[in-house]
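Exam review. A common question shows you a sequence with its structure tokens and asks you to describe the fold in words. Practice with the pair below. Do the first one on your own.
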Amino acid sequence: MAISLTTAGESHGPGLTCIVEGLPAGLQLDRGALDADLARRQLGHGRGGRMKIESDAAEVTAGIRHGRLLGGPVALQVINRDFENWEERMSPWPVEAEVPEVHLPRPGHADLVGAWKYGASDIRDILERASARETAARVAGGALCRQFLEAMGVTVRSHVVRIGTVAAPPRSEALTAVDFEAVDDDPVRCLDAEVSAQMVEHINVQRKANESIGGTFEVVVFGLVPGVGSHISWQTRLDGQIAGAICSIQAVKGASLGDGWDLPARPGSEAHDEIFYSEQRGYYRETNRAGGLEGGMTTGEPLIAQGAMKPLPTLTKPLRSVDISTREPAEALRERTDSCTVPAAGVVAEAMVAFVLADAYREKFGGDHIDDARAALASYCERIAWIRR
């Protein structure tokens, strides 16, 4: 059975809604872990004033009883505390007060193209839904998918590897789940404390210069069994699904799997992961250049995916634009903004990768109840004689 994840809501509207359908009944949920993921999305040096207003938590309105999934759609709501400051401007129904329209599209945002497409004279009709605030609902839904994966032995983590011109050096040893235990305590969610300090300073310098900063995050998934996904059709290849899910995150302009961005410059002998076998380990690799994916399927090695995030398009010193009501030159919209959200984007990417993998696990192992899914997983591992890493 496929899993679907649907979100609704606007940045400054009453709240955000997420509906997740397709998870198995009987899965015991950790409410604290769900809200912890939402809190993690608000982390990171470079966040703006909005994060001082919001304290995100998920309210369950359907699909869960006494902490267990019932098998039907799960509905979650995240309240926008800032809505009380926007009640007239974002009221679902007409108001007596005159609400001024916004006519100053920001380069790099959905404002202008969205106004064209949907026939809006007020770009707030576009920018509210296009805002990355929507990802709070994705993280809430992704947290449910993460807990399903954890019940199946899979762990999803992320960290920041670049902010602006500051990049962490390549690691000499492969990451393990233990390496991520304190990542959220770091101000930019970087695993290298020395590089983290440089990233923080870079954000400070760019913020003082009225600039926003992009960067690169990496998602690492441990505990996957081989053969999830398929080579049979382009729709079922996990490479495309994961890349698409990461690139669906606001401001992300590129995705890479394994050593993907570096592989074009290497000869074939340095691009692939040789195969070995021993009685103790079964089939194994000594490298993981493919990032745990071959032919659109998991290999059993850790899945590694990176996302490249551009600088945010809302600037404290706006770029040049055009007033869409007069077509005269103007400065782009000034709106409260963050200077850097790469650490938060990594958390959102965790949620999106968890959703894709949860869907793939449901496709492969099925089961109306979590015990059925676990039994199918155990039977599969026995059939292929898979020795869990």
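Now try the second one, then compare your answer with the model answer below.
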Amino acid sequence: MLRRHVRQFCLALGLAALAAAPLRAEVRDETMEAPVVMGLMAAGVRAEALGVLHGAETRYCAAARLGNSEAQYRLGRLYLTRKGLGVPAGAAMNLIAAAAQAGHGGAQSLIAKAGGAASDDLPPCLVQSMNVLALADSTVSGDLLRVDPTAGVSPSRGAMVGLIQRLAPGFGVDPRLALAIARVESNFNPEAISPKNAMGLMQLIPATAARFAVRDPLDPEQNVRGGLAYLSWLLRTFDGDVLRVAAAYNAGEGNVMRHNGVPPFAETQEYVRRVLAYYGAERHAPVLGAALRDRATVRS
């Protein structure tokens, strides 16, 4: 049964030579595309840890298409445990069967427990067109598949989106990062007030508002300028590391410094995951041609 499913897997990828070869040759040498595969796997693992499931699926699938057994195993396991991805269990088991045949211990153990539950189904990502090398190039820069931070925003809040997009470059902040923060913080509501008295679009607490000279935190432009000033300071402090910047915006830079990274707070970890899903990269993109100004003062 394993032999039939591995051949089905290879044929679906157009690897006719592999399907016709002896069984031990049906899985490609994983060192052939080592730099590409390693980049894809690193991005896939990070995306899965952050909960960016589509990003993890795509990276694992690209590496699986290159014959990497760890990618086949991880992709199959992702489909088995994340039913929301909509891939039948039989298709997931086909991937795991291929990894097991290549000698992957975890896959062999899972196959033994499942009792050969594979089918003739294959995950859609294996039969759809995919530019693996282009995807690998984007992996090198730490890119993750991302969600539009303005998706589903009501027309009444479109002006708030435009305000952030207009002001962000002047502070050296990528507008998309500012939009991601505002989406997670307030859903672009300029009148939002949290139980901790964080206010406005960028949810400035009183101490942060005072720190960046924001006199009226419920004035949208003052609020955005204050939030951008803080983001700009955080980007310089944490050398453009978006994970630490987002964590600091939520939990304070002191906690990030104390823990040397994202603090082990459930709220902060979920916050970082959501910001990363909207921003789509772990490193801040340079803002070309930005007219950088003194960020210590926010003009009213």
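Model answer, second protein: Residues 27 and 108 are 15 Å apart (CA to CA). The mean pLDDT is 79. Full marks require stating both points clearly.
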